[in-house]
């Protein structure tokens, strides 16, 4: 086992009845990194986090924190703290007492306690709020108090259970960046679970994409985006267009796929064992689509479509087109190079096959 | 026109409440207050005076009975809280769905019978020829019949039994509203069972604890049947004094004064309890 990993789990299983909420999950989080677990609701990520916090026990597998086996250690004895989804600040205590609660349990003397409370409040940007009640604070401030309450204890591992979910959009964007800065500043290892792929991408060093209790892929955000390992990851992380068809030929890691209307498109092979005749799915990102073959360059793949509508959203403006009943989205460049688009007009979308990924059809 | 109709219907809706308060609470109490200040000089002449109140403080039997009643009521309230808290915790936090309703009903069912019937039920269990006594004899733990009635313990058992529901209901209500994560956060930040109970759960449940305690304390202090039937002639409950003055001695003036004193002194005790626990009546009653 690597000595520098703060958290390492092997073969974790947690069953509820016949259903395995966590199904043979192994993970390894290096010290001082931001690790996210991303998945749709019901994928088992909260169960996994509760196993790590100690609120629940795994049916199989081991949890090691800094090399120490944690399976039998109760939550109050683990070097792990958790920021709850709804924060769970103690409403009957002031902000200072909330933060001091953990220090008191560690038998830190009162004078030292006051000093460290003031210090951590300063660090999270809420100086001199010790005597307020949590109910009097704004959502963002409460969030920071919840973080301070854990960080003041200098845990090996900080678990975060979608703490940004309750905030409004603007504040959420702001807190994302702030959380990342705080993590760097404190150097604590963060394990963050979320269903929001943007949160996971922006903040994390490593992201694990989880589905039905299993990890589909563990990778840095950029790799996850550019080289998704499974169709689920390709569809879940970021926007993607999906085209279904049959493989006609594979050469040099590029597969040609015939769509149901006869058009042949190509993309890089992303799953093993893709042979001619197999059902396949091709994924291409909206920003990889260009509006003329020239722009896409030599050897590009293209598809004839009919324009449905354009969706203006600043830098994220898109055109919705349709090919054989299948909706495709392409990003509209906002630098004036976009062609004039009229609904029901004809549009040829092209792409570099290296940017598209072809998977064997996932058995649904 | 519209507003006058609105006002009329408001009064109409308020009427039952107002009639209740005025006729059944306000008028009798004011009447009693008036009687308590009347001193009977001879069989047909009355004068105003404080003689009855002086009696309470000068006759040690009166105020000693009051102190004894108060202390035992406080103890009963505390005991009720100790017993009710785990029950309420189980109903509010651990029981799910159907069993929750059934448990709640189980707490409620005894109250379908009158206090008299419930008290006689306990007497059947505790008396010399009762169930517990005969079991002990069958088991061979005692040689002869044991009288478990007519002592303070029997009185307190009966009073706790009567007060239990009124403690469980407000506790279940407050504990029900507590976020499970609060308890988990309490453990997560390093607290043991005792710490979480003391620092997280009890402060949260305080409004329920205080309102339950007030209700049980007032009920206990003012209860009559249970102390008389289960405590026998020596139970010396303050309400018995009032009963004796009114019914046996036919001294309504003294009875009224004792009644007023019971009301005033018990309200004072409740106020003191609220002050000591740092709660206000408004917070406790929601």
Describe the structure.
The complex is a heterodimer of chains A (about 375) and B (about 290). Chain A has helices at about 45-55, 95-105, 110-125, 140-150, 170-185, 195-205, 220-225, 230-235, 295, and strands spanning about 5-15, 20-30, 35-40, 60-65, 70, 80-85, 155-160, 190-195, 205-210, 215-220, 240-250, 255-260, 265-270, 280-285, 300-310, 320-325, 325-330, 345-350, 355-360. Chain A is of the alpha+beta class and about 375 residues long. In chain A, strands 6-7-8-3-9-10 form a six-stranded mixed beta sheet, with helices on both faces. A five-stranded mixed β-barrel of chain A has the order 11-12-13-19-14. A four-stranded antiparallel beta sheet of chain A has the order 2-1-4-5, with helices on one face. In chain A, β4 and β5 form a beta hairpin. In chain A, α2 (about 95-105) crosses α3 (about 110-125) and α2 (about 95-105) packs parallel to α4 (about 140-150). The longest helix of chain A is centred in the middle third of the chain and has 18 residues, at about 170-185. The two termini of chain A are about 35 Å apart. By secondary structure, chain B is mainly α. Chain B has a domain at about 145-285: MetI-like (MetI-like fold, Orthogonal Bundle), CATH 1.10.3720.10. Chain B has 13 helices and two strands. Chain B has a two-stranded antiparallel ribbon. Chain B is globular. At the A-B interface, β6 and α2 of A face α8 and α9 of B.
């Amino acid at each position: 086992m690597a000595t520098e990993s703060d958290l390492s789990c092997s073969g974790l299983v947690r069953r509820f009845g016949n259903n395995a909420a966590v199904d043979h999950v192994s993970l390894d989080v290096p010290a001082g990194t931001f690790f996210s677990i991303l998945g749709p609701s019901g994928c088992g990520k909260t169960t996994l986090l509760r196993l790590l916090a100690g609120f629940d026990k795994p049916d199989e597998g081991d949890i090691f924190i800094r090399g120490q086996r944690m399976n039998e250690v109760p939550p109050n004895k683990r070097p792990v703290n958790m920021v709850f989804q709804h924060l769970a600040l103690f409403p009957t205590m002031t902000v200072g007492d909330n933060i001091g609660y953990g220090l008191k349990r560690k038998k830190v003397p009162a004078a030292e306690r006051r000093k460290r409370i003031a210090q951590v409040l300063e660090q999270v940007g809420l100086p001199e709020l010790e005597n307020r009640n949590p109910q009097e604070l704004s959502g963002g401030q409460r969030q920071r108090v919840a973080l301070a309450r854990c960080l003041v204890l200098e845990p090996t591992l900080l678990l975060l259970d979608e703490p940004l979910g309750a905030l409004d959009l603007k504040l959420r964007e702001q807190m994302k960046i702030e959380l990342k800065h705080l993590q760097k500043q404190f150097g604590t290892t963060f394990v963050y679970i979320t269903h929001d792929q943007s949160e996971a991408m922006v903040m994390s060093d490593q992201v694990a994409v989880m589905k039905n209790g299993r990890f589909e892929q563990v990778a840095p955000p950029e790799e996850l985006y550019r080289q998704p390992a499974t169709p689920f990851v390709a569809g879940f992380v970021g926007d993607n267009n999906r085209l279904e068809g049959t493989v006609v030929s594979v050469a040099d890691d590029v597969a040609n796929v015939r769509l149901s209307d006869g058009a042949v498109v190509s993309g890089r092979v992303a799953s093993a064992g893709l042979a001619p005749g197999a059902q396949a799915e091709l994924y291409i990102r909206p920003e990889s689509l260009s509006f003329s073959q020239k722009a896409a360059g030599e050897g590009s793949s293209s598809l004839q479509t009919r324009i449905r509508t354009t969706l203006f959203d600043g830098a994220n403006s898109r055109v919705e087109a349709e090919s054989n009943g299948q909706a495709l989205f392409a990003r509209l460049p906002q630098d004036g190079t976009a062609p004039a688009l009229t609904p029901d007009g004809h549009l040829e979308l092209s792409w570099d096959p290296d940017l598209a990924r072809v998977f064997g059809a996932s058995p649904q | 026109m519209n507003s006058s109709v609105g006002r009329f219907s408001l009064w109409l809706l308020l009427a039952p409440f107002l009639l209740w308060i005025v006729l059944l609470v306000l008028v009798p109490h004011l009447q009693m207050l008036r009687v308590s200040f009347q001193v009977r000089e001879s069989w047909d002449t009355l004068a105003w005076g404080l003689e009855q109140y002086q009696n309470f403080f000068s006759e040690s039997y009166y105020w000693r009975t009051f102190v004894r009643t108060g202390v035992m009521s406080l103890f009963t309230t505390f005991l009720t809280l100790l017993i009710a808290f785990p029950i309420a915790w189980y109903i509010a936090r651990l029981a799910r769905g159907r069993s929750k309703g059934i448990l709640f009903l189980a707490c409620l069912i005894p109250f379908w019978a009158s206090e008299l019937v419930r008290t006689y039920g306990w007497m059947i269990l505790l008396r010399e020829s009762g169930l517990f006594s005969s079991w002990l004899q069958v088991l061979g733990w005692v040689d002869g019949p044991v009288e478990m009635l007519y002592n303070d313990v029997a009185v307190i058992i009966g009073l706790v039994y009567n007060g239990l529901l009124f403690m469980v209901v407000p506790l279940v209500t407050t504990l029900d509203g507590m976020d499970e994560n609060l308890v988990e956060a309490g453990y997560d930040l390093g607290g043991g069972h005792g710490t979480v109970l003391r620092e997280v759960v009890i402060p949260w449940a305080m409004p329920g604890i205080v309102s339950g305690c007030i209700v049980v304390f007032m009920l206990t202090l003012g209860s009559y049947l249970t102390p008389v039937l289960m405590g026998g002639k020596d139970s010396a409950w303050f309400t018995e004094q009032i009963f004796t003055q009114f019914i046996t001695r036919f001294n309504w003036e003294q009875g009224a004064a004792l009644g007023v004193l019971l009301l005033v002194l018990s309200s004072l005790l409740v106020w003191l309890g609220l002050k000591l626990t740092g709660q206000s009546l408004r917070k406790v009653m929601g």
